[in-house]
Amino acid sequence: MSLIGGQNTARILTINGGSSSIKFALFEIGEVPRRLLHGQIERIGLPEAFFHVEGEHGFAGPVNAPEHFSAVNLLMDWIAEKGLLKTLTAVGHRVVHGGPTYGESQLITPAMIAQLRQLCLFDPEHLPEEILLTEAVKARFPDLPQVACFDTAFHHTLPRVAQLLPLPRRYELKGVRRYGFHGLSYAYLVEELARCAGEKEALGRLVLAHLGNGASLAAVHKGKSIDTSMSCTPTAGIPMSTRTGDLDPGLVWYLMRTEGLDAKGFNELVTFQSGLLGLSETSSDMRDLLQREADDVRAAEAIAIFCYQVKKWIGGFAAALGGIDTLVFSGGIGENSPPIRSRICEGLNFLGLELDESLNAGNAPIISTKTSLATARVMHTDEERMIATSVCRVLGITTRSEYEKKTAFH
Fold first, then answer.
1. Cα→Cα distances 142→134, 146, 315, Å
2. Are 306 and 243 in contact (CB under 8 A)?
3. 248 catalytic, yes or no?
4. Does position 21 have pLDDT exceeding 50, yes or no?
């Protein structure tokens, strides 16, 4: 479906389901994608569930959302009430784990849902709710196309040396390998880098740091992922708000013997009780810790460990890439915390990276000095826009920006 020079427009609803929230956005796809609104249903399963929308038809208020099925039906009710359904072309879903099968966005089919159910053991925190959301939309609007946009797809280009885990080979046959996550964010950053900086920089040696509640890094060369910090699950890599990141696997045996932890208890510990929260014992929010670090050694150590581990991964990826041309900070922490960026970059001069502290303090798009051999950038990521763009590609909808991007790269 081509929209170039035509009068037709498509409207794409994007849905990003979390463990206790549903984020959504509505895009109008014409000459360029235009975000009409975005919002969130928060605190699903709690008495204080809240529904808010920004943009067209702005709204905010408490709702009754005891589980995700009820929450997505509230969203569908609201869409129908505002008359948006008749203009809706498709729905795009962020799906965290695509396993070994799905290396690109695809139309959702019953066969896909059956395969995703088998992957739930890899991602019990996200996949069950994401499957439920697709089924709720289908039950309500059976003729509306739905597209799954996989967070693991960007990393399907990982070379075998980065993909294989050092376990007996039989586990690879069961799908146990490095997958990597935050792929929608990384794909958007590579495309946006090509738009704002040019093809040469976008195809160079990139280290992309998506630093938020969930946090990871990726090494990218010629637009392809060659390594990433998260592994078979989103718990691996650097310490996060409540996740441990990489951990000595021998601790599983130790904690089973000393504290009687079972598999469920261990998962609860490393996924929801650790990271910045576990180290500080006060907060999982980096902003809180920065305010407390002068008077609270636990907060200071949590910050120091986070920055140290990010720096280590940057150094490791520099070795894998043979150097760094561009370092990109993104995500809630990466985009908004100059002190964290400064501490991460401290001592990286050996990579040719020199930070301009005044530019960094002002959250400038480029925060490296003019004489720096490597460029350090701060870039806003937009996973929702990437989902909308992916839906257009799957359905064959061509926008002006998509056309320009294709001609720029070819």
1. 10, 10, 49
2. no
3. no
4. yes
Question: How many CB atoms sit inside 10 A of residue 69's CB?
Answer: 16
Give the integer Cα–Cα distance in Å for 13 and 384. 9
Specify whether the CB–CB gap between 209 and 329 falls below 8 A: yes
The set of residues, in sequence order, having a beta carbon less than 8 Å from that of 127 and lying 6+ positions away, is: 95, 96, 97, 116, 119, 120
- DSSP-H helix ranges across 174-262: 183-197, 199-202, 250-259
User: What is the token pair recorded at 355?
Assistant: 């930070």
User: pLDDT per residue over 384-406, tens digit each?
Assistant: 999 999 999 999 987 655 544 54
Q: Which residues pair with 41 in a beta bridge?
A: 22, 51
Q: At what angle do helices 297-321 and 338-345 cross, to 10 degrees?
A: 50
The pTM for the full model equals 0.92
Q: pLDDT tens digits for 216-241?
A: 999 999 999 999 999 999 999 999 99
* DSSP helix/strand/coil, 147: strand
Cβ neighbours of residue 248 under 8 Å, at least 6 residues apart? Answer: none
| Contact yes or no for 342/310 (Cβ under 8 A) | no
Phi first, then psi: what are they for 58, rounded to 5°? -50, 145
Which helix (H) or strand (E) segment holds residue 219: the answer is: strand 215-221
Q: Which residue has the tokens 């929209």?
A: 3
Distance, CA of 99 to CA of 207 (rounded, Å): 24
Residue 83 Cα distances to 23, 80, 86, 135, 247, angstroms? 20, 5, 7, 22, 50
Does residue 93 come out as left (phi exceeding 0), alpha (psi in the -120 to 50 range) or beta? beta
Alpha-carbon distance of 11 to 398, in angstroms, equals: 13
* Average pLDDT rounded to a whole number, residues 194-207: 97
Question: Angle 222-225-228 (CA atoms, 0-180°, nearest 5)?
Answer: 145
Considering Cα of 294, then 296, then 301, then 303, what sign does the dihedral take?
A: negative
Q: Please give the Cα distance from 358 to 348 (Å, whole number).
A: 18
Q: What is the set of domains in the chain, with CATH numbers?
A: 10-150 (3.30.420.40), 200-378 (3.30.420.40)
- Tracing tokens 């670090």 back to the chain, one arrives at 293
Q: Which residue among 151, 227, 325, 382 is the active-site one? A: 151
Cα–Cα distance for residue pair 289/282, rounded to 1 Å: 8
Span 335-386, pLDDT tens digits: 999 999 999 999 999 999 999 999 999 999 999 999 999 999 999 999 999 9
